[in-house]
Amino acid sequence: MIKSLDFFFDFASPYGFLAARKLSALAENIGRDINWRPFLIGVVYQAHGSTPLSHPLKEEYMFTDAFRRAKLDGIERMNKPENFPAHSVPPSRLTYWIEREAPDRVSDFVVAAYQAYWTGGGDTSDMAAALDVAEALGFDRQKALAGMESPEIKGRLRAVTDEALERGVFGSPFILIDDQPYWGGDRFADIETLHG
């Protein structure tokens, strides 16, 4: 049986974007499957009585650092998503619908959606923007819309967000592998060494 890793992320996270682009290569290098687990980071912060960018200097630094990391990763231009910070319910639900309908396409959707938000500047809370990405990947727009609005898929996102809280996830991206937590996208070398 192939082991897996759990990748918890929020589409509104610039570091989640940078990590998602490289995650498939990491998983292949260490012989793991990926459980793509979008969750709502705002709910997690609310549960702990805080907000993601509660300090004004933190937001300024985060974008300076994330954009610098993007250039080092070969991304010429990174843009703050429209309406940032906004929830990411639409692409998160679509991820779970695609996981149900075409599990081998989940990584394609996650990376393409992240690209649309962080290089294209799309709004993570805009349902049409998420559906545009799914449609560009060949998914039927009306079926995708019906799927993401279904009680099953809505419940799935709530359940994974609850799971994130229960498992001690406090940021995005957050990898859990062999019951070990790794916060951020800059621990891939550690993961390869310790879990390969």
Describe the structure.
Strands 2-1-3-4 form a 4-stranded mixed beta sheet, sandwiched between helices. 56% of the residues lie in helices and 10% in strands. The chain is an alpha+beta fold. It starts with a strand and ends with a helix. The chain has a single domain, classed as 3-Layer(aba) Sandwich (Glutaredoxin), CATH 3.40.30. Helix 1 links the parallel strand 1 (4-9) and strand 2. Helix 1 packs antiparallel against helix 5 (106-118). The protein is globular, with a radius of gyration of 16 Å.
Strand composition percent: 5-15%
Could you spell the SSE succession in H and E letters?
EHEHHHHHHHEEH
The radius of gyration computed from the alpha-carbon positions, rounded to a whole number of angstroms, is 16 Å
Helix content: 55-70%
Number of separate helices: 9
The count of domains is 1
Which CATH architecture would you pick?
A: 3-Layer(aba) Sandwich
Uncertain parts: none
Average pLDDT, rounded to a whole number, is 94
N-C termini distance: 15 Å
Overall geometric form? globular
CATH topology: Glutaredoxin
Q: Can you identify the CATH class?
A: Alpha Beta
Strand order of the largest sheet: 2-1-3-4
Number of strands: 4
CATH level-four homologous superfamily name: Glutaredoxin
Note the main sheet: 4 strands, mixed
Give the class from helix and strand content and strand pairing. Answer: alpha+beta
